[in-house]
Amino acid sequence: MAVHKLMLDDVFDDVAYTLVAMHCTLEDYRLVFLLNKHLKIKLARRSKDLDFNKGKSNYSIFEWEDEKQLTTWSLVSNTCKTESLQEISFGSLFENQEKITKTTHLIPEYKRVNYFLKIENEFSSSKEKYILDTILEIPQIATAYSIDTFQLKSKDNLIFS
């Protein structure tokens, strides 16, 4: 009986995408408005946020699928702040509770980055530079830069579907 071996190496290749890190203090909806205006895109909030650790950390996400260019644009927050109550006892008769704010990051290697813009398409370097220059023209954004995705340790967190 013959043995058939199937090779699936080409099927699971990495999807080409550009990742732009942005530093700004804007709320996510305000940043989306400015990006839509300057880049002429149509980002809209997803009905559900990104959920990691079984609901312990949620990250806001905005997406737009460009049918003409076959491109998917995603803006995701890098920080999630959660509050919890922790009981403090000093050996006294009364128990006290203290609010603890815990901050988690989608991409822990870039803790200072506020938002990531992921563009799923293979752009030429000139198109990528145009997008980055357009983002840097927005006065409310302190800085923005491209990230080499091959160097990321937590690139699995960037799989949104």
Automatic annotation (TrEMBL):
Top-rank taxon: Bacteria
InterPro entries according to UniProt: IPExxxVDY_fam
Protein name: IPExxxVDY family protein
